[in-house]
Write a structure and sequence with these properties.
Number of helices: 3
Mean pLDDT: 76
Radius of gyration: 14 Å
Strand order of the largest sheet: 1-2
Order of helices and strands: HHHEEEE
CATH topology of the domain at 7-71: Arc Repressor Mutant, subunit A
Shape: globular
Largest sheet: 2 strands, antiparallel
CATH superfamily of the domain at 7-71: Winged helix-like DNA-binding domain superfamily/Winged helix DNA-binding domain
Low-confidence stretches: 78-98
Length: 100
C-alpha cells in the first residue's frame, strides 16, 4: 500500500489541460500529438490517483466538462511576456511548440 499524496505526473496534467481546453479527448489527442487511447489512459490514471472522475462525460458529440473538484479548476498559462498561449506538440516531435 502506498501512503502520502498522489504522485501526479506531467503527462497526466498535460492531458487534463488539453481535454479541458479542447472539450474532447480526440481534439486533445490531436493537439498533443497522441492517440485518443493514450489520452484516455492518462485521464484514467489521473482519476485513479484522485479517486474520482475529473470530467463529466455527457456522451455523444457533447464536450466533456471538468467536474466541480477544485483541485483541477482551470488556470490560464502565461508566457514570460504575460500573454496566454497554447502549447502544442507536433506529432513527430516530443518538443512543445508555443502558439496556435
Amino acid at each position: 500500500m502506498v501512503f502520502g499524496p498522489p504522485r501526479y505526473e506531467v503527462r497526466h496534467l498535460e492531458a487534463l489541460r488539453a481535454v479541458a481546453d479542447e472539450g474532447t479527448f480526440r481534439a486533445a489527442a490531436d493537439v498533443l500529438g497522441y492517440s485518443q487511447a493514450a489520452i484516455s489512459q492518462q485521464i484514467a490514471g489521473l482519476e485513479a490517483l484522485v479517486g474520482s472522475p475529473v470530467f463529466d462525460r455527457p456522451g455523444g458529440p457533447k464536450p466533456v466538462v471538468l467536474t466541480a473538484d477544485e483541485r483541477f479548476s482551470p488556470m490560464p498559462r502565461q508566457s514570460s511576456t504575460g500573454s496566454t498561449r497554447r502549447a502544442r506538440r507536433s506529432p513527430t516531435s516530443r518538443r512543445a511548440r508555443v502558439g496556435a
